[in-house]
Design brief:
Number of helices: 5
Largest sheet: 2 strands, antiparallel
Shape: elongated
Strand order of the largest sheet: 1-4
């Protein structure tokens, strides 16, 4: 991990909440798993505004799937978070840190 990542972990970011609920209608998880009506789904609540576009309205079949999505997102963001990109997209690094904090907050779930 980079030292920038470690420094950002000290910044106070409100932890998102993991919500488990029953879906009233059949849904398909981002991993392809079909969750039938009455099946349990996992969502993230209390998101910072910057993460609404990443997680807002997305349901997952399990906390494990949500963690995998966070890791995949971090991998993608890490590839994009270059010094050249920071000149163009100033909040990319912050988004990366917020996804990382989301992952950290749900690891025990």
């Amino acid at each position: 991990m980079s030292s920038v990542f470690n420094e950002s972990l000290a910044a106070p970011i409100e932890a998102p909440e993991l919500l488990r609920s029953e879906t009233p209608i059949p849904v398909r998880c981002r991993c392809g798993t079909r969750v039938p009506s009455g099946g349990e789904v996992v969502e993230i609540a209390a998101l910072p505004e910057s993460l609404e576009g990443v997680f807002g309205g997305v349901v997952f079949c399990s906390a494990k799937c949500l963690r995998a999505f966070c890791l995949e997102s971090l991998e993608t963001l890490d590839a994009l978070d270059t010094p050249d990109a920071r000149e163009t997209v100033s909040d990319l690094h912050e988004l990366t840190m917020e996804v990382a904090m989301t992952l950290v907050s749900i690891l025990g779930a």
